[in-house]
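Lab meeting minutes (informal)
Scribe: AK
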Amino acid sequence: MKRTSRPVLIAASTALAFTVALTGCSDKGGPTGGSETTATAGSSNVDASALLASAAEASKKVTSTHFTVDVTGKVPNMPLSKVDGDLQVKPVTQAEGTATVDIGGKSEGKFTFIDGTMYAALMGDKYVDYGDGKSIYDVASLFDEKKGIPTILTKISGAKAAGSETINGQETTKITGTVPATEIAAVSGSRVDPDKSVPVPTTVWIQSSGDKQLVRIEVKPSADGTITLTFSQWGKKVTVTKPKVTPVEPTDNPGTGESIPR
């Protein structure tokens, strides 16, 4: 078997993939107070299409944010179950935080994305170079104007307002619809053959006032799997330091702190 020195984690790009880990047009942060969510009915007078268009434009101006990713059920090619981090989109993409992965058992570790490279200590305390990071979570694609959230928001079909909810202190309008599977790779982590693309149930929660930032997006890429991304603290300062990387020798049977060779 061919072995190289560049380690790689099993599957899943995102960026949400996740994919790692963003700010609003006026760079104003919102409350973070826990994960409280309350819902109310209504929103019958909301123009869902117009609100989605506003959110898409706002997402193009995001510079930094705090974000979380939660994966429930079974999602193909997604070893992640949770991400909690800070992401800077502009002037350059960088991020850091923690991630929970399931590779022969769940483990939580730290990640840092800087200078176009993902470094992570997922199975021990040794940071490993994971290249562009797509094998963990494609944070660089999350707010990419061509394939990330700005585009996803414009691809939602059958959009309908479904009430309002308060998420972490943010008053939001809930909108439901579907997005072609080919368009949600930045969130789902799965690249789909255009000929096999199917509508994916998608729900978004957008600020009811102010910048109209996307507060949460939930996609259901499989029958029993859901990926949820939540954003807050737009415009927060994100300081990332390149970690010291410990060279890892290729191995066919990785142990704690080691990585699977590419």
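Next up, CB showed the second protein from the same session:
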Amino acid sequence: MDLAAAAGRLSIVKWLHTNRTEGCTTAAMDHAAANGHLEVVKWLHFNRAEGCTTSAIDDAVAKCFVEGPVGDETSEARVNSASFATPVDERRFEIIQFLHSNRTEGCTSAAMTNAVGNGNLMLLQWLHFNTRARCTKHDMDKAAAMGRLDIVQWLHENCREGCTTAAMDGAAAAGYLGVVQWLHENRKEGCTTEAIDEAAANGELEVVKWLCENREEGCTPDAIEEAAQNGDLPMVKILHNVNRDRLVINRGEHAMFILELLGECDVDIARNSEQVAVLADANALREAAATGQLHIVQWLAHKVLNVDTMRAMCEAFISANFDVVLYLHGQLPQNYYPGDRMIKPLWAQARILNSGRVTKEMLVWLSENYPCPTAEDMQAAIPQFQFPLRVQLLSG
């Protein structure tokens, strides 16, 4: 009977009620309500004694919306209002009203959360004024991340639960500048570095600009690295120049350890903010080189140490981005040699020739400009070739 009720098969429910003795459970009315079967809910209420649980209203609210596009989410709307009304499913709303008037189980905060998640401000208001259910602080977080400024404002004015930093973080990540600005002006929770980090990763340039100018949380090196990997040069430029001191704080001792480990400088030098910021730029350069983002590489290359340029060139070579390789090679001093510690692993990666990514032309170029210390090392890296390597490659 539970299954028949959930499917809205009232005739089967009645037959089982008359001809069988097994009966049903509270799941019958719970699922009938959630699935929008009003007549089944009414029949079970008047003819059976099992009743329902709070899940009946909670789950009915979760599905109480009309599917399909309900607005034009233009970039202008996202910046200014970010408000898109979600039509209420009248059939399920009638079920909710029936259960509220005829049953005593009520609902829980999940109903309010479900109404927010569906963007149903009208239903949210009805639940607030007609039931004992209350919101949680995460409901405003969710509304903000959805860009529903109207719901955020209503919760702010009518509920005491407030929100967390996830509200502004989520709105920023999704590009809802209007919501970010409203939270900044009307709430005290603020945001975290996730706001810029996620907005940068998602290409939300205007949001990142505004946060950099109006908030103090800053970002982590992840922001510029993600922007570089995405090939987002305007974003990289902004992140390169803002909140450099914050970048140091967020890197912290970890950055100093990395710098010392790489042998680029000692701990005292690493404590200089410019030195730590260079590390972030170097990471971004390697990401851009590995993904073939030449325009990003061109902008970052002159901001890092020679050793970082060489590392980026190695990443580009391994990824077969030869145009990036040639550009970075041209940025290095004449006769610059980074040492065997970097060259040997690069030659070891030449095994990728077997997959067709690294061409013979690239290997010839590598042998001419960055030869391996010994022929044995080169032979070990590419055993299918005999030496002299250049002659073998050209004859192939």
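CB comment: Residues 338-396 form one domain.
No objections, moving on.
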